[in-house]
Amino acid sequence: MKKIYLVMCVLGLALPYYHLIKFLNQNQWSMNGFWDEIFYSSHPVSMISMDLSVAASTFLVFLIYQFKSKKINPIKYIVCLFIVGFSLALPLYLYDTHDKK
Q1: pTM
Q2: Alpha-carbon distance 81 to 5, whole Å?
């Protein structure tokens, strides 16, 4: 199972950045319009954006709870969450905590 989590970490890093680079390349390496397209381009895109926002926020609250109750260090997961996204942070957390008692 850990190998699957590791593959998901790689995909969680590669796929979002692939599309970010494509967006930047099409817009002369400018972030202008990025947030408008994410949240307001269409209802299906807005739905997915809001779904991921709630999931990532829930994971952040979970990390804070884990930090307070079990004294884990959530820094690398929080950095991954804000620098790359939920697609890397969750698989990395699952990878690190798999088989821990």
Answers
A1: 0.84
A2: 16
